[in-house]
Design brief:
Blueprint: H1 2-26, E1 37-40, E2 46-49, H2 53-62, E3 71-74, E4 80-83, H3 88-98
Antiparallel strand pairs: 1-2, 3-4
Length: 99
């Protein structure tokens, strides 16, 4: 009886671990923290920073709010592109991906 319980617990733990590894290989979906700045370069690499209050206020003067879902894609060579998501179909796909 104890071996059956042990097997069930081990199987459940293995299932949970496989889900965690699957998410890790697909890329983690995370939200930006309040005040965080993310830069995306044309070659696809990204960087983030947490500016001080003065720098953040200066950047906010140049900032515009995002009105809809946005997508970025990289080609086989690693060059980054922004996908036009202005149509309803593209918006639906973008929002589906972000869920």
């Amino acid at each position: 009886m104890h071996s059956i319980k042990f097997a069930l617990i081990a199987g459940l733990a293995g299932l949970c671990a496989s889900q965690a590894f699957a998410e890790d290989t697909m890329g983690a979906m995370t939200m930006m923290k309040g005040g965080q700045v993310t830069a995306i370069m044309p070659d696809g690499h990204m960087g983030t920073m947490m500016p001080d209050a003065k720098m953040s206020a200066e950047m906010m003067k140049m900032a515009k709010p995002i009105k809809h879902c946005m997508m970025m894609i990289t080609d086989a060579k690693g060059k980054a592109y922004m996908v036009d998501t202005s149509t309803k179909k593209a918006q639906a796909e973008c929002e589906k991906m972000a869920m």
